[in-house]
UniProtKB/TrEMBL annotation:
Residues 4-132 form the VOC domain. PROSITE patterns: VOC. This is Methylmalonyl-CoA epimerase. Pfam families: Glyoxalase_4. Coiled coil: none annotated. It comes from Alkalicella caledoniensis.
Length: 133
């Protein structure tokens, strides 16, 4: 079902400062910045080897990322895995007893179909599955 790691997401409270940090201090190449209105976030994408690092920051006070930052502060947010058939993967995960946050895919950054597995089912790690749209 899972093909490979797609990205690791880090929630940040000072988007511009952290984009500059990853670009200048860590010397990672900024690939793209995108606003995902539907999720109330903006995201910056960096790559290191075959893994993407996604910095996410809220643009909406009611977004899940804004709530995450208020509760936990900046830091690791989620890990995302590529799947080839997200609808089938969601069904398989549910059949295995995992609790899904999204039982139908949403459209996320980079026009990918995404769905999240609840951290209760994954040892406290918010886990995303994604399929290129």
């Amino acid at each position: 079902m899972l093909k490979e790691i797609d990205h690791v997401a880090i929630a940040v409270d000072d988007f511009d400062k952290m984009v500059e940090f990853y670009s200048d201090k860590l010397q990672m190449e900024l690939k793209k910045i995108e606003v995902v209105e539907d999720q109330g976030i903006k995201a910056a994408f960096f790559e290191i080897g075959s893994v993407k690092i996604e910095l996410i920051a809220p643009i909406d006070e009611d977004s899940t990322v804004a709530k995450f930052l208020k509760k936990k502060g900046p830091g690791f947010h989620h890990i995302a895995y590529k799947v080839s058939d997200i609808e089938n993967s969601i069904q398989e995960l549910k059949e295995q007893g995992l609790e899904m946050i999204n039982e139908t895919p949403k459209i996320g950054a980079n026009n990918k179909k995404i769905a999240f597995i609840h951290p209760k089912s994954t040892a406290g790690v918010l886990t995303e599955i994604c399929q290129q749209g």
